[in-house]
Amino acid sequence: MSLPAHHPVDILRLNTCGSVDDGKSTLIGRLLYDSRSLMEDQLAALERSADLTGAGQINLANLTDGLRAEREQGITIDVAYRYFATPRRKFIIADTPGHVQYTRNMVTGASTANLAIVLVDAREGATEQSRRHTCIASLLGIPHLVFAVNKMDLVDWSEERFIEIRDQFEAFLPRLEVKDVQFIPVSALHGDNVVTPSLHTPWYNGPTLLGHLESVHIGSDWNLNGFRLPIQWVNRPLHPSDPKLHDFRGISGQIAGGIVRVGQTVMVLPGGQASRVKQIWTHDGELAEAFCPQSITLVLEDDLDISRGDMIVGPDKLPGASADLQARVCWIHSRALQPGRKYLLKHTSRTVQALATQIQDRMDMASLEPQPDPPELGLNDIGTVRLSTSAPLVFDGYAANRLTGSFILIAPNLNATVAAGMLLPPGELVKPEYTDFAI
Question: How far apart are CA 335 and CA 113, in angstroms?
Fold first, then answer.
């Protein structure tokens, strides 16, 4: 579907999650199919791969399950991204796996989402995996959550069953930090309440799924308080064609928070040098101001010693700095986390060596209660840990800023990402207690 010329639209990033076979891929296929967001060749491919065992019915899950193993097993393994638009909004959808073995892929797809759709099988209700995905969505700071109670046709469109499932989730949602929650009864296979309202749910007066996705407010999701610019590189044109660029020295990166304006005083951390913004450049030209999450190049009035891994911030609402970190992590590797093990910690554009000093707790997925002092964190476990780094990090708490409050852990001997982490609010600067970080 084409967009009217010059019509202002924003982009909603969303992911689907839930247990195996709850209908995530089918739901996305239904959204694309019923909103007429498919090309003619995609429609032709769907018809050629029609599920003949189902009386020739088109298998909408094939729109996202592109791997042969996924189609053979009927499950999602990798994260599949799909793009579509309506006259009101553009969408980037991440179809993430439901199988517990691929929870790590779900974390990847959800890490940048504005909204998460948790698919729930109306026959099964709140399973452990759907509770785990809800918990991860909360920990990742996704501000909007939709529970799509799917396969309502298999429970005779029972309002009582829908309310029962809603009560199951609402019983533990107060323990999680979720700002906006919506429950919608749907049948992804038949399209009820996905794009068009269903005649089978006269007792439901809420929006369709697409209607909610088009109208949910996301303008305040980005952090616009406190300027943050992690430095990715220092931009010095090697062969400038414009004489004005002969002495050009720009500081490039993606804004991770706040607003910056020409003439504004800024500070470079961790060094603490101060300067003023002389120019702001983007790919489209020079700007008077820029804001999160734009990618920009700053030109400062002073030639400061700045390199990749530093952070330019505004003089007010300064971030914290510490080498003793407390964080919640989702462990995504088969080799367990144990105290005393050493990792590489990648935070924004900086990578430092880190030592796991303590596992404070592990979350019980059944009760959502923390279990104190576990011996280790295994695959798909979520827990609170303490880390000591070889150099202090400049960061915000994840609840305040998702971009400067997140990190990943890398096992250097495996060259593998082993955890996704969310930093708790920083305290005062603490020097590293451990100095032997040789890996």
Answer: 28
Q: How far apart are CA 317 and CA 153, in angstroms?
A: 52
CA distances for 333 relative to 337, 381, 413, 437, angstroms = 9, 10, 13, 22
With CA atoms as reference, report the closest residue to 305 among 275, 263, 283.
Answer: 275
22, 148, 200 from 207: Cα distances, Å: 21, 12, 14
Distances (CA, A) of 317 to 77, 314, 400: 42, 7, 11
Report the alpha-carbon distance of residue 166 to residue 160 in Å, rounded: 10
Provide the 3-class DSSP secondary structure of residue 355.
strand
Which contiguous run of DSSP H or E holds residue 383?
strand 382-395
CB 410 within 8 A of CB 343: yes
Report the C-alpha gap between 411 and 51 in whole angstroms: 43
Q: Which residues contact 360 (CB under 8 A, 6 or more apart)?
A: 326, 372, 373, 383, 384, 385, 386
In the numeric block, the tokens 């044109």 are attached to: 237
Backbone angles phi, psi at 95, to 5 degrees: -85, 110
Q: What is the pLDDT of residue 50?
A: 53
**Could you tell me which of 309, 287, 306, 308 has the C-alpha nearest to residue 296?**
287
The two three-digit tokens of residue 1, written as one number: 């579907």
Which two structure tokens, joined as six digits, stand for 174?
């107060």
Per DSSP, 51 falls in state B
Burial (CB < 10 A; 0-12, 13-18, 19+), residue 18, is buried
Residue 424: DSSP 8-state: P
DSSP string, 141-163: T-SEEEEEEE-GGGGTT-HHHHH
In Å, what is the CA distance from 156 to each residue of 141, 162, 391?
35, 11, 60
* 76: helix, strand or coil: coil
10-residue averages of pLDDT along the chain (439 residues): 47 82 79 70 56 50 48 45 84 69 60 86 88 82 91 96 95 84 93 93 95 87 84 78 69 93 94 93 91 91 91 90 92 92 95 96 81 92 93 90 92 90 69 36
Listed in sequence order, the residues at least 6 apart from 64 whose beta carbon sits closer than 8 Å to its beta carbon are: 25, 28, 29, 76, 80, 82, 95
**Could you tell me whether strands 228-230 and 180-185 are parallel, antiparallel, or unpaired per DSSP bridges?**
unpaired
- Which amino acid, one-letter code, is at 254? Q
Phi-psi region of 232 (alpha: psi -120 to 50; beta: other; left: phi over 0): alpha
